[in-house]
Amino acid sequence: MQIAQSIGANVSVIGVDEDTLNTAKKLGAAHVYHPDQAPSNTFDVVYEASGASQIGPLITRIAANCARIMQIGIPSGPVNNISFGDFVTKGLSLEGILGGVHLMPRTLELISKGVIKPKEMVHAILPISQISEAFELVSATGRGKPKILLDMKTL
To answer: What is the reported pTM?
Structure first.
């Protein structure tokens, strides 16, 4: 969201967790919606980061004609009820996005320029010995800030 805003994008966030939506507002989201309230045929680019298997109907419904759908979240199984008819009739495209170490220099540059504000995104930094707690936090709702980091210096 922060990167998109830095290049002038009008960013909306769709989610089910109130704390996450409130964080999005604080970070400058133009609009926040619950899935059933999100406007149809609206967004030129849809970034799907949840990986939720029930996301299929939503991403095609909210996408504008000729929109790009960017799949960032990794689903744990097949995504249900994707309408391939919508891909044809609306001219949608789907891309899988896999981040990686090769993006670290650019990420650090954006952090140094203040484009990305990590403190606004990180809920907790835990020692590696607390990996079980980290996974529990990742699964919990109500965090607001999405990232849980493991401090590898504690190995």
So the answer is: 0.83
